[in-house]
Specification:
214 residues, mainly alpha, 0% strand
Amino acid sequence: MPRAGLTTDRVVAEAADLADETGFEAVTVSALARRLGVRDASLYTHVRNLQDLRFRVALLAGGELIEEIAQAVAGRAGKEALAAFAGAYRAYALRHPGRYAATQIRVDQALVADSPALRRTAEITYGMLRAYGLAEPDLTDAVRLLRATFHGYCALEASGGFGAPRDVRASWDKAVDALHVALENWPRAEGAGEEDGDADGDADGDAERQGTAG
C-alpha cells in the first residue's frame, strides 16, 4: 500500500529539491526514500525506477523553466524578448542547479511525446526567433546557437570557471547583445523557408534536452 499523502507529484518534487541541494547525479531512489522517511519499495508505487524518476524531474524542471521564460518574454519582441529570455534562463539555472542539470538529459520519448511544456518551449523559442525573420533551416541553427551560448555560459559561471575580474553579469549582457546582432544579420541559407514543415519536428527532437528547445 502506498504511504498516505505520498503522491507521484510529491515524490518528483522532493527529488527535484534533492537535486538542487546535492546535485542531480546524487539523486537515487534510496536517497529520496531516506528524505521522505519511507522504504525504497514505497517509491516504486510512484516511479518505475531511477531512470523514470530522473526523467520526471527533467520534465518538471523543463516546465518550470519555460514558465519563467514565458512570463519574462510576454509582450516583448526583438532584443527585449531575447534579453528577457536569456535573463530568465540564467536566473533559473543559477537558482536551481540540480533541476537545471536535469533539463540537459535526453528524456524518454514516450514521456515527452505529449508534453505541454515541451511544445510550449518550442513555440516560445521559435516564435521569438521568427520575429528576427528567420525560417528553417536557419531557425534550428539559431536555436542551437542560443542553447550552446546560454548553457555554456551558465555551466562555466556555476562552476566558477570565469577567473578574470570582469563582472560576469556585464559579460553576459554583452553576450546577449552580440547574439542580437548575430540574429539581425543572420547568414540566411539558400532556400530558407522551404523547410518550415520540419520546424516543429526538429524543435521537438532537440528539445528532448529542454534547456532552450534546441
